Amino acid sequence: MKINFDGRWFGDHGIGRFAKEVYARIPDADISELRSLSPSDPLDCFYITWKVLTNKSIWISPGYNAPIFGLRRYIFTLHDLNHLDCEYNSNIIKRFYYWFIVRRACLYSARVLTVSEFSRQRILDWSGAEPEQVVNVGNGVSENFRPDGQHYTPGYPYLLCVGNRKPHKNEARLLAAFAKANIPSSIRLVLTGPSAGLSKIASDLSINDRVVFLGKVTDDQLPEIYRGALALVFPSLYEGFGLPVIEAMSSGIPVMTSNVTSLPEVSGGCALLVDPLDVNSIANGIEIVAQDNHLRKNLIARGITQAKQYSWENVAQKILNALEEAQEKLKG
Q1: Where are the alpha helices (DSSP H) in the chain?
Q2: Edge-to-edge strand order for the sheet containing 134-136?
Q3: Residue 172 to residue 118: CA distance in whole angstroms
Q4: 246, 17 contact by CB (below 8 A)
């Protein structure tokens, strides 16, 4: 059967990268059917229902949007439940959408894809779906993220935070911990993305001269920025996967991250874990990952090995298996 792929998710964000990498590896997938309306629009469920019912193909979405009817021919990807689990990422419209559209899709779609065992179990517990219904396909890391290659050299040593200024990224606590950490003042904290409200926090902490916001970073620039860093500091409160952890490991730098949600699973014992709710714990982690050379070398070596488990080819193969199962069910 023809495979229609929802290419509206393509972009520089996490789902966008997942979408582009997966689409490139699904033979003959077609993105021409869906053009108008954002896939994250609450009204998209009506648009996609119309499309699915009038085009008798297999449909696959790399994001969480789903139709109301036609679910037997529909596969979608629920990376996590942060729109329910994180109060600051939720609202009444999102909760309604998840409970009445997404939950029903979890029960009756051809398959639900997700990216970690943490997310898979959370989805099963929330939706009540049968275990075989939700498939952990994992995530991948591009071959552009590797230890060899150009390094970003701004003229000072730096710790790197890759984030998007959403509250669950926990960057306010990271700034407080950076201000508190006993490390040389020459070390700066570099954050991808805009400053948003963090520049005022940095100023209040008297570290605004040590905090750098890079603004929008391209896919070509990001590997160089990883390679040039002393370490990735990523004390997120909630991640369905946490792609920066694997990208940093693959780039050959040590990682400090949180001991919650999917992050211990994805880092696989190859990162320094901290309590993301405790500024002292984060500050202590910053001190260790920036200055303990023996631990740094150990984390780098183990991290490179850990990152090799995550490839887009493996992700694509698991999705192709799910597509094949869906086609077999339809024939039956």
Answers
A1: 14-23, 44-54, 82-85, 92-97, 103-108, 117-127, 171-180, 198-204, 221-228, 243-250, 263-267, 279-291, 293-307, 312-331
A2: 3-5, 58-60, 74-77, 111-114, 134-136
A3: 25
A4: no
Distance, in Å, from the CA atom of 170 to the CA atom of 282, rounded to the nearest integer, reads 11
Question: Rounded to an integer, what distance in angstroms lies between the CA atom of residue 244 and that of residue 171?
Answer: 14
Domains and CATH numbers, the chain: 3-140+311-331 (3.40.50.2000), 158-307 (3.40.50.2000)
Written as one string, the DSSP assignment of 259-293 is: SSTTHHHHHTT-SEEE-TT-HHHHHHHHHHHHH-H
pTM above 0.85, yes or no: yes
For 144-183, the pLDDT digits (tens) are: 999 999 999 999 999 999 988 899 999 999 999 999 999 9
Instruction: Name the residue among 299, 293, 285 with its Cα closest to residue 178.
Output: 285
Residue 98: phi, psi to the nearest 5? -65, -45
Q: Which of 172, 187, 184, 179 is nearest to 207 (CA)?
A: 179
Residues of the chain with pLDDT under 70: 332
Provide the pLDDT for residue 332: 64
